[in-house]
UniProtKB/TrEMBL annotation:
Region listing for Disordered, in residue ranges: 374-419
Source species taxonomy: Bacteria, Bacillati, Actinomycetota, Actinomycetes, Kitasatosporales
Entry similarity comment: In the C-terminal section; belongs to the transposase 35 family. In the N-terminal section; belongs to the transposase 2 family.
Protein name per the record: Transposase
InterPro entries hit by this protein: Cas12f1-like_TNB (IPR010095), RNA-guided_DNA_endo/Transpos (IPR051399), Transposase (IPR001959), Transposase_put_HTH (IPR021027)
GO BP term, pick one: DNA recombination
Keyword line: DNA recombination, DNA-binding, Metal-binding, Transposition, Zinc
Every Cas12f1-like TNB domain range: 294-360
Domain Probable transposase IS891/IS1136/IS1341 span(s) in chain numbering: 173-282
Amino acid sequence: MARQVKRAFRYRFYPTDGQAAELSRTFGCVRLVYNKALEERTRAWYGEQRRVSYVESSAMLTGWKKTEGLAFLTEVSSVPLQQALRHLQTAFTSFFAKRAEYPRYKSRKRSRASAEYTRSAFTWREGELTLAKMSGPLDIRWSRPLPGGASPSTVTVSRDAAGRWFVSLLCEDTPAPVPATANTVGVDAGVTSLVTLSTGEKIANPRYERRDRVRLARAQRELSRKAKGSANREKARRKVARVHARIADRRRDFLHKLTTRLVRENQTVVIEDLTVRNLLKNGRLARAISDAAWTELRFMLEYKCAWYGRELVVIDRWFPSSRLCGACGTVREKLPLNVRTWTCDCGAVHDRDVNAARTILAAGLAAAACGDGVRPQRESSRTGQSSMKQEPQRATAGTPRLQAGEEVKLWSPRRRPGP
């Protein structure tokens, strides 16, 4: 059964000179308020062993506006500044819950310039969006329509490194239901083949970064020759950013099409819980793994399965999917990466990736049906947990359904004392 979800619809827009100047000032003020609040919270903790709440940070913001050096904070809308403090509070909450690292300062060069507006800071009328402190609406390119009768609850304006302006409208939406199906699929992620399906199909990795590597290297060489602080260096930096944006946009478009197809064609999708952060430590494969964007692939599968009432099962990262014979259940002791086809003692000949996808599917279906224990030969997790975890996500349940005593850990943040 379809349910209402919050979806963000992102569009490109072209501001006037006045709007661009106003938004640039807002971005700078948002970054300043976030960094000053983070500095105060860190100082209070290390100096006084005291935690600073959002309410106290908001009171500090009021005081900053009354000082001579920060009086310019009153020239921009107050809502994005308050939202910056709320985002900082969320960052600390995630840190305390051990879901993320300690909050970091926002950099003028490395951080994405953005500002968030709530209902009180923008006007939405007849398909036109007007932000606070602006006299006219934004010139938005409506590449796709908003849901019928939808009214945005939050608007986020951003500017990427390539100088492109985007506006994201958060709306309530009911995803169109997809027909139920009995199909199931196991997905094995790779580098040569981006994914290999349990059906035997291999989907090639488009390698967008490799395709534009020569263009990127040329743009970076030109950037290195420009004098720091010059206008020509800024032009060269924008050129490098445009190449990166082209790579990212094409990769994201491909992943959207792939994940939508998998979700529409299958009722249950089974994947592995890969630790991409650890895999990136391999110097030979780091660039190829980054280009494959496995984390983004999994993220898309998670929310699309939740939207369309599909089930996503994630098995443990230590499950020997490639070394497990799908015919007899024997686990091969070693299987180097350069071995793409191997023969089991039972006589079965396996394509490494196809066999991995099929054993992933079998393990995931068994875990979803009756819990851990598909094959007695399976290795246990090095962490001492069960050798399989599942994270099924349904349209009727907003939280993962776990087996008794199991715990899902998407990442292991480095712990650091803080406020």
